[in-house]
Structures are given as C-alpha cells and as structure tokens.
Design goal:
Helix content is 0%, strand content 61%. The termini are far apart. The strands form two sheets. Strands 2, 4, 5, 6, 9, 10 and 11 form a seven-stranded mixed beta sheet that branches. Strands 1-3-8-7 form a four-stranded antiparallel beta sheet, with no helix packed on it. The chain has 123 residues and is an all-beta fold. The chain contains no helices and eleven strands.
Length: 123
C-alpha cells in the first residue's frame, strides 16, 4: 500500500502564503500523476493543480498564484499558495497515482488520497 501524509494547512490572512506538503510512503516504483484538490463547505471537490507526464495544469481560479512541484527523492509533492483569497478556504487533498511493489513483489497500480488539510483565509 501507498500512504500519503499531508501537512502545512492553517489560518492565514488574505494576501498571505502557505505551502502544503504531501509525502508518500511505500514501495513506490513511479508516479504517473500528482494532484491537489480542494473542497469547500457545500461544494464539490475540485482539481486545483496537477503534474502529469511532465506537464503542470492549474484551475483558472489559482493560475499565477499557486505552484505545484515535486521532490522525487523525497516522494513528496508541494503546493505553494501565494496571494491567498477568502475563496481559497477549503480542505485541500492530495492525490497521487502510480505503481508500487505489492506483496511478493508484484507490480501494482495505486491511487491514494491524503487525509486532507484545512486552509482558512480570513482576516
């Protein structure tokens, strides 16, 4: 199994910055896609940013303010969030997809979610 642990959420004033981290553990072979999602109260979960096949994508609402990056050596994906707005308030989740060594070293695919971290932007 591949497990993800998120960190970095919190309370920040409008215009402030936060950096979220998502660290993966397990017998990981490779990542195919890494993404950050968010879910605000009463709304559906939405994709915020993603890395796949070497390309990055961002939701229009965060372009120019958020940056997704990865540290391959640490099996970690980050989301740098700048110029935060109250409408960025949500629970943020990471999702990683790839392959890993399962029992008896079989190669298996995974799609794992982090536990979620609260980001609150308020004065």
């Amino acid at each position: 199994q591949v497990q993800l642990v998120e960190s970095g959420g919190g309370l920040v004033q409008p215009g402030g910055s936060l950096r979220l981290s998502c660290a993966a553990s397990g017998r990981i072979i490779r990542f195919n896609a890494m993404g950050w999602y968010r879910q605000a109260p009463g709304k559906e979960r939405e994709l915020v940013a993603a890395i796949s096949s070497g390309r990055t994508m961002y939701a229009d609402s965060v372009k120019g303010r958020f940056t997704i990056s990865r540290d391959n050596a640490e099996n970690t994906v980050y989301l740098q969030m700048n110029s935060l707005k109250p409408e960025d308030t949500a629970v943020y989740y990471c999702n990683l997809e790839g392959s890993y060594f399962g029992d008896s070293s079989y190669i298996l695919n995974f799609s794992s979610w982090g536990q979620g971290t609260q980001v609150t932007v308020s004065s």
